[in-house]
Write a structure and sequence with these properties.
The protein has about 400 residues and is α+β, with helices and mostly antiparallel strands. About 25% of the residues lie in helices and about 30% in strands. It has 10 helices and 20 strands. The protein has helices at about 65-75, 115-125, 130-145, 160-175, 190-210, 220-225, 245-250, 255-260, 355-360, 390-395; strands spanning about 30-40, 40-50, 55-60, 80-85, 90, 100-105, 180-185, 210-215, 230-235, 235-240, 260-275, 275-280, 285-290, 300-305, 310-315, 325-335, 340-345, 350-355, 370-375, 380-385. The strands form 4 sheets. Strands 6-7-8-3-9-10 form a 6-stranded mixed beta sheet, sandwiched between helices. The chain has a 5-stranded antiparallel beta sheet with strand order 13-12-11-14-20. Strands 15-19-16-17-18 form a 5-stranded antiparallel beta sheet. A hairpin with a 2-residue loop joins strand 1 and strand 2 (about 40-50). Helix 2 (about 115-125) runs parallel beside helix 4 (about 160-175). The longest helix has 18 residues, at about 190-210. The chain is elongated and about 80 Å long. The two termini are about 45 Å apart. The structure holds adenosine-5'-diphosphate and magnesium ion. Adenosine-5'-diphosphate binds near residues 43, 61 and 399.
Length: about 400
């Protein structure tokens, strides 16, 4: 689909100049062992990543984990300390930002305050010497695409945050990038507008077929938007996958906690029975998890989705079954369609059960009640042996963000 008339952006990133072979996909991004150091501080460590052409990729992680540094290196606004960046199979590591085929939309939009919307959007074409009538026509077309044509003569201060965001998006798109880079593009918006603009971004991505790389610390945003979620931690990639893979099969306790919606539990390997490994929890509880091979006594972590746990009124006696914990209700939060129930137990400091309002009505509980929480063995997802002390020391030495969970 052509959005800028002849010679404009088109779906699936098929190039309009004759430089690439016909039909060849443009906009694939590859990072090869990319690192970034600021003085002594290691912000990004040997990141390897392949983003297919036309994908919507979200770099997700806590504050300070290296997302923006990675994005700025792709854009060319930050130098690469080590490694290579390839865009459409071309090594762009030392190229100027303007010739990489990327456009970066800044977190604060960075619109020129003294220029109208139209002139803001047309600005980079002006710098390239495009005639006024042509650049204004292209800018207007893009303002229409982001539903801002009616505001073309206003200055940024006369616009709401959401409107400024649309203008910034149009301004980034006018250079006809193969890759659009967005740094926390929704973070300045109120929650209602954020969800609305999220849908707009998805629509525009679908219509243009460009590669989008979007930095966010919101797992909800990443899951709603991305084809490819890249979870970062301490300057490294912790896990890459589709939203379903990352949510349902987290590779580590960090990812399980960061994505949310999971209880992380641990126990020591006792024995194997019928395709399962049996763990002894910290108290009297035992857990059955998918079988893994490790020496007996190995401490192992696994997770169970908060919405896969059932609650029943209980007594103090632990039932004689795997995957059952006895607990006391610490808190009940109402969220409209569902309720979140926090439990105190020997199994974990943080254990949450999420139930539908209908299920809650069947078994209402209140703070202080004794309950048993239980789940099916197939809902336990193994996360691996707990790191040894030495591995923990290595993890501690990585740069850590203020929201680092583990
Ligand atoms: P994120 O976007 O995930 O919050 P950043 O990439 O901005 O993370 O930062 C990663 C780390 O690099 C942080 O520890 C941050 O303080 C540091 N950092 C970022 N930019 C600079 C800079 N220009 N100079 C020095 N340190 C920086
Ligand atoms: Mg950032």
């Amino acid at each position: 689909m052509n959005v800028l008339g002849s010679g404009g952006l088109c779906r699936a990133g098929v190039k309009r100049t004759g430089m690439m072979m016909r039909g060849e996909k443009q906009g694939a991004v590859e990072l090869v062992a990319v690192s970034k150091r600021y003085g002594d501080a290691q912000a990004v460590s040997e990141v390897d990543l392949k983003v297919p052409a036309g994908a919507y990729c979200c770099l997700l992680g806590p504050s300070g984990c290296g997302k923006s540094s990675t994005l700025r290196m792709i854009a060319g606004h930050e130098s690469v300390s080590d490694g290579d960046i390839l865009i459409s199979n071309r090594n762009v590591t030392v190229l100027h930002p303007s010739v990489r085929g990327t456009a970066l939309m800044f977190q604060n939009y960075a619109l020129f305050p003294h220029l109208s919307c139209l002139d803001n959007v047309a600005f980079s074409l002006k710098m390239r010497g495009v005639a006024k009538a042509q650049r204004q026509a292209q800018a207007l077309e893009l303002l229409e695409r982001v539903q801002m044509a009616a505001y073309k003569d206003r200055r940024p201060e006369q616009l709401s945050g959401g409107q400024q965001q649309r203008v910034a998006l149009a301004r980034a798109l006018i250079t006809e990038p193969e890759v659009l880079l967005l740094d926390e593009p929704l973070s300045a918006l109120d929650p209602f507008l954020r969800v609305k603009m999220r849908a707009e971004l998805k629509r525009i991505h679908h219509e243009l077929g460009l590669t989008f790389i979007h930095v966010t610390h919101s797992q909800e945003e990443a899951m709603a938007l991305a084809d490819l979620v890249v979870v970062m931690r301490g300057g490294r990639i912790e896990q890459t996958g589709t939203p379903t893979e990352v949510f349902n099969r987290p590779c580590s306790p960090f990812v399980a906690r960061f994505m949310g919606g999971h209880n992380v539990l641990k126990g020591r390997l006792e024995r194997r029975v019928g395709g399962f490994s049996i763990l002894q929890g910290p108290g009297s509880q035992t857990y059955a998890v998918p079988e893994f091979s490790a020496p007996d006594g190995t401490e192992y972590e696994f997770c169970v989705r908060t919405d896969r746990v059932r609650l029943a009124r209980g007594s103090d006696a632990a039932p004689d079954a795997d995957n059952v914990i006895v607990a006391a209700v610490r808190g009940v939060e109402y969220h409209g369609t569902q309720l979140s129930i926090a439990l105190d137990s020997e199994a974990s400091d943080e254990f949450t059960v999420v139930t539908s309002d209908r299920d809650f009505a069947q078994c209402p509980v209140a703070v202080g009640d004794r309950v048993v929480a239980m789940w099916d063995v197939e809902d336990a997802h193994g996360l691996g042996p707990t790191p040894t002390r030495r591995e923990n020391v290595l993890r501690e030495s990585q740069p850590r963000g203020e929201m680092d969970y583990v």
